[in-house]
Fold each of these.
Amino acid sequence: MRHTPLFAALLGLSMMTGAPDAIAADAPASVTIYTTAQDSTQRLARSGTATLKTGHKLTEVENSVFVDPSKKHQALLGIGGAITDSTAEVYATLSPEKRAEFMRAYYDKRDGIGYSLARTTIHSSDFSSASYTYIEEGDKDLATFSIEHDRQARIPMIKQAIAAAGGNLLTYASPWSAPAFMKTNKHMLRGGVLLPEYRDAWANYFVKFIQAYEKEGIPIWGITVQNEPMATQTWESMLYTAEEERDFLKLHLGPTMHAAGYADKKIIVWDHNRDMMLYRAQVILGDPEAAKYAWGLGFHWYETWAGFDPMFRNVAAVTEAFPDKPVLLTEAAVEKFDPARYQHWPNAERYGTSMINDFNNGAVGWTDWNMLLDQTGGPNHVGNFCFAPLHADTRTGELIYTPSYYYIGHFSKFIRPEARRVSTATSRSTLLATAFVNPDGRLATVVMNPTDKEIAYNFYVGQASAVVTIPARAIQTLVQ
């Protein structure tokens, strides 16, 4: 199924409509339901309404979702995706009409899914057509620093994304590797460690990046210290032990950022998987001198690569140990691209499961990886091809919408920045759920059914309830 959501009405779909206005205090407790379901045409479709009433018997159906809006938790920073070199390069191949469609699909709050958060890279990553840096090799003084490479595709796309998002898009940046001469292995790829004599130069590199991007009119909200600091990859990568990252932050990067006038920029540590995040937090955030420079901790979802279950509980362990330090999912992608699996529903369910559990365990935001890739799952200069929520067939100019796009949209479209997560529970493991109260007072509850059977459930908001039905293999957002 390769349809364009902006023209879904032509296919008989009722989808992507704006959320209803906030309900007046004296209005009936009406709930609008939006659904995406496998083996159907429903894609963020307005699928029905329900009226919350008091007094219905809890025993009417077996499954229940309980929401208590009076019990509030973390505020939402935002939901979005990464504008990598690959995303920007593929985007640049699209026709003007398709580029406009892409921007509406991702950033428009009414006709799209309303992304509010963006990640980008500091020079190259694996999702670039080639390795590169912003300086000439060996330039320890950074005299040759230039972002000219990024002006070709990435910077123009980020500027258009900011405009499409209404002029405000929270943007942060991550490095995959320092320049080769600054590392023990003298190579951008395959790990290696930052040499002690280049720690200050590398810290200044971050400052130069922020200065250059902001001169282009792209505000940088924050940076991460290092993408995946415990992984020796075949692509751009660099290693830090927990102690090395702590010391680089407190003795070099933090002081350098402050001296440059960037004390307001957020510095995110770890930026790797959930499995080791508590130990990294204990070492860095447990050190007062390092912690004063750290905004919070970023994490990825790839601890599942060897078949292990996601370590959602570790997200909560960090938030419980360091309640003043937010945690943010900074990267997630479905690996091992196969064009025959564009519509593979479990890919979308992986997003839904992770987003619900990460939020319920305290995450303040969620950033998908590449927003757009081509029909090969790239470009990628080391063959690490992956899925994206949207793909473009560069041979035809067609945009391909995967189920993951819609599943993410059930969160990003209806749960807006500064929304507060509220207490949510389910009575059976057959359903997953999370809920947020938006700044305008609207309650948005996301319910996911990963089973092969339609499920009727009691939807409780406080003492009032309604019986709602969710199709098999589906996700719903209930807006009150």
Amino acid sequence: MPATQRRILFKHIDEAGYTNDLACYLKNGGYAELRRALTLEPQFIKDEVKQSQLRGRGGAGFSCGVKWGFIDAKKTARPIYLICNADESEPGTFKDRQIIHQDPHQLIEGMTIACFANSVHLAYIYIRGEFPEGARILERAISEAKAKNFLGKNILGAGYDLEIYVHRGAGAYICGEETGLIESIEGKRPYPRIKPPYFPAVLGLYQCPTIVNNVETLCNVKHIVSMGGEAYAKIGTPNNTGTRLIGVSGDVQRPGCYEFECGALTLGELIYEVCGGIRNGNKLKAVIPGGSSSKILRADARFKLRDKEIGISDIPLDFDSFAAIGTMSGSGGVIVMDDTRDMVDCLANLSEFYAHESCGQCTPCREGSQWMKKIIHRMSSGVVRQEDTALLKSVADNIAGRTICAFGEACAWPVQSFIAAFREEFEAKVR
């Protein structure tokens, strides 16, 4: 039997009678951790977050505590900013939206504690343009929090000031990349910056030290303050601590958003037990494990993990296991495909998205994403040339690793992995 859900972030979501307003949040213990945090030393909170081993939940899985450690308020005369990345644009990913719509004060409380710990007095929530209702919910929640002195001047009499503003994007996927997001907030075209020197902790928003964290990451901060970093680190597995929000979509009986301890169940348990198996009695064909940019896994493939050979159903759901087999858990968006799916058509769908969303700054990505889209659509429609499969892979190979930001990999990896896993379907189009 698979592990049962351990709801920490989703503890109250979907409870009967639970609403997203402040009164309901307070009734369920809301802002208690903020009151406590304001009595602690900021460095103590930073140390607890580092001890918790919390990793970023936006895609890269970088240590939150280490990221915060790059900034030292005592060594800079410039203001420090914090940005919550709510630009959830990765196809197959929908977990942050759940928090924003159903429990926005959890985000604001976690964000406020993070700001206090890092001496931040001005913060932004950057939300994607396609979330108009989410933006309205956050604006209302911020107003409610300010009315009760959980935000604004002299918060809860502790002598700490903080303003949080919602900044709506215009619907560009590239703004999920932190430096492109920063450029967008500054009112510029969202071209990602070259790192170094424009590492946000050094030269971020308005050329000042800046922390960029994902929605789910910041929500975890309040729970780390509540239970302590050491206790939090005992949840999950070593280097993969805490819980993870997993959004499952595609060809399963029960798609949805679930919360489990990291590494507590396998991919097979998620698909067959939690989600009820493949719909319509079909068979599993492939899984994209971490949002559409992560490399696809073929259902009948075998993988080497920790000196063992395992199948797709035996892969633990954690950061390190997916990285070890050559893909990533990314944004937690699991896309399941059954044996009725044409892999060339599926890749054509993804390539259409990435070609549309390229910011155009780097030539390999700007030109190559369009070339890949044209080739794949030609193959999908049956107008195929003998060299198309090799040409398609060659274009992808010449994008990955040759662009300023990770968008190059995001559009190239699906092409590389689809061809590697299902080359026979591409060759069949040629034949």
Amino acid sequence: MSEGPWGAGGDDLEKKVTEIVDRFKKGRPPQRIIFVAILILLILLGGQSSFYKVDTEETGVILRFGHFTGFAEPGLHFKLPFGIDRVYLVKTGRVLKEEFGFRTVTPGVRSTYSKRGLEEESLTLTGDLNVSDIEWIVQYQIADPYKYLFRIKDPEGTIRDICEAVVRKVVGNSNVTEVLTTERALLASAIEKETQTILNQYDIGVRIVTVKFQDVNPPDPVKAAFNEVNESEQQKESLIFQAREQYNREVPKAKGVAKSTILEAEGYAVERINKAQGETNRFLALLTEYRKAPQVTRQRLYLETLEEIIPRLEEIYIMDSNGAGALPLLPLRKTTIEGGK
């Protein structure tokens, strides 16, 4: 925020005119020359202070006799000279930043930061009565340059005070684990919304772009102990995930094996039942035929049995009940196999 170029007030102009008049009085020039010199000087100063430039990222706020008359867009503009019009340039096209808990010393590709003397700003009490060391930034844009300039005396200081109060409130309602690990993004979003709500109530023409935690750590005296606790928590979570992974792998597999076994048992049961029913039906059919012709059926069963058993024998001896000894060996199976080859 600054006054526009060539926007000198009437007091400066009056001093310059007085100096010129004093110089002319010492030499006692003619009054006409004095008048002409003063007139030329006024014209030059008026012409010089009648133009001003607004850069690309700026918006000009124009006051005439101290009253707001409008805005000036980027470019070259004309205004009334001699302090009648005053122009204040506000960087509305740039995202401005406020840093908390640290300060940027040398910005650039490899920026350097400093925390010296900012411990009170960064140390914050959590809801479970622990202390966390928080560094954060607030980025904002000037939405209404007139309100930003004239609604409040110190807008930057007001933004800092509001944001710091909101951060301490939100962090103070959370436990240290949420602040340091899992809930940082949600807490930053809550801080952004509440800060914007308060700024809207102040009506100073500022829009919050983002609130971001740069670094959140426990205080140095307890950092080592906290890191050990954090590592234990991470190891616990890792073991839980491994157990869930093994559970998700083994349980479906066991269910599949169990289902397969059940289906096989059911199939085997159906097979055995069908086979038993078939054997029963076959026996009943044979019994029916046997009752019709017992001798024929008995002879047929005898022949079918021999037809099934004889091919399994390696050697066959035929005995004659009337003879004294055994008949010659008949290697029927062997001959049949060799003939088949």
Amino acid sequence: MAKNKPHLNLVFVGHVDHGKSTTVGRLLYDAGVIDEQSMRKLKEKAEELGKGGFEFAFVMDNLKEERERGVTIDLAHKKFTTPKFDFTIIDAPGHKDFIKNMITGASQADAAVVVVSCAEGVMAQTKEHIFLSRTLGVEQIIVAVNKMDVKNYDQKAFEKVKEQVSLLLKSVGFKPEQIPFVPMASLYGDNVVKKSDKLSWFTGGTLLEHLDFLKVPEKPTDLPLRLPIQDVYNITGIGVVPVGRVETGIMKVGDKVIVVPGREGKGVNGEVKSIEMHHEQLQEAEPGDNIGFNLRGIGKTDITRGDVLGKPDSPPTVATEFTAQIVVLNHPSVITVGYTPVFHIHTAQIACQVTAILKKLNPATGETLAENPDFIKNGDAAILKIKPIQPLVIERKKEIPQLSRFAVRDSGQTVAAGMCIDLVKKAM
């Protein structure tokens, strides 16, 4: 069996109508993932709906409603292989109504392609998506300056957008000099997969080539073991089989483990009998592995989705309260002390109450704008004190960042996203 290439999750973000879906469609088509015949059908469909030129976007936007409205609503996942990597491409919605899906996408991503139209430059959601990508821990970014055709492939127009985006990147803590900027015209395929003589002034390679310059994210194997439980099955003849993804550390057959909070909130101890991934038995699992495993000493009702597995010498942290830095994205009115929405942290979904608003921050720079404000609203960043209604595993960003991030949802939408910066540990 051939050695698997390293796998990366790649999210495409950017302002609505700047050409994200078209870029992804063009990339997949020119790289041969989508055949001629499927493309022809999409083209006919696009013209029939009066959306000529949208055929590449239709590759990802395969929901009927998306086609009719011409916007990406949900996340689409597509596998895609380059000489160096196996990618899962996540085409995230630019439209502000669908920002919650973008958060889900960005929180799973190892790298992001930010698509910015050369015609419009930095827009509201360009800012929001770059900031969110940063908040959600995306370390690697490629900036695709699209629609160069609208500006007649002019180098000055490209430089102008590059300057704007560089300022924005810098303001949220990226180093623009380390970030590639790629001029292209996705609709015509200029510089996406194929070099273009219309961009002969640009010496830096195509978007596809830049994807292979991304770095394999380091696997946090040196951190303590953390595996959030996704589901727990009872399999005849085997017993209790929890499934989940290893976030940090290494899990081996024979390891003594503890799952917290567990049913009683005190943690449950067991031992790893076997580990399986894609129907193959493993001796050990590392970060990024989605596994099923069998535990000795733990019953079906002892543990549940949202519990986290670790080792007894450094068990996952159960917090009675925590301090978080958040950004408010989409709240219908204002957030005040006493607000109790649902926090989505790893696989847990737990109602948590805001007990204090310590500071309001400038979302771009992080500087303090106000101490103890009465409320915060859309677009604000803030530092809050938060109390989970029931025991919850969360870690400090500086200790185990993989278990520090969360999204806040309320009545069907994501209202905020953030990370834990400090916490009060529950006495076990």
